[in-house]
Design a protein that fits this description.
mainly alpha, flat
């Protein structure tokens, strides 16, 4: 019986929580398309809230707030600073998502600019997490 030599696999450093958040964002978009196409139900008013809330919640999960809080009592290093920045970005995404709800109905250029910045940073973060960072 011939045995195969296992080739060393290049492991990516994508957290399972991050992959779960990406899956939730994809499912949200898919459900929105299905509801609009088949049932003529539009979630367009709530779509920015859903996307921003899921992204923000995902960013907060990735930073591991409990560990981050413990680390901030020690010296701040590059890793802690990155996680702190991601945590602030996650909080901003949730706040902007709540402000974009139709019940709150805040329409201001600063809100739209913040949504754009969060989206661009999120795209960059996704690219880096999935294709650049390796173990």
């Amino acid at each position: 019986m011939a045995t195969k030599k296992e080739e060393p696999k290049v492991k990516r450093k994508v957290s399972t929580k991050f992959a779960g958040v990406l899956a939730l964002i994809s499912i949200t978009g898919f459900v929105e398309i299905i509801l609009k196409s088949f049932f003529n139900v539009s979630l367009q008013q709530y779509s920015s809230f859903l996307w921003l809330f899921i992204m923000g919640f995902g960013f907060i999960i990735i930073t591991k707030p409990k560990n981050l809080y413990k680390k901030t009592h020690e010296a701040i290093n590059e890793n802690t600073f990155t996680r702190l920045t991601t945590f602030v970005l996650g909080c901003m995404a949730i706040i902007v998502g709540i402000l974009s709800l139709p019940q709150v109905n805040i329409e201001h250029p600063i809100l739209y600019a913040t949504m754009g910045v969060i989206s661009i940073i999120s795209i960059i973060f996704i690219i880096i997490q999935t294709w650049v960072i390796k173990e």
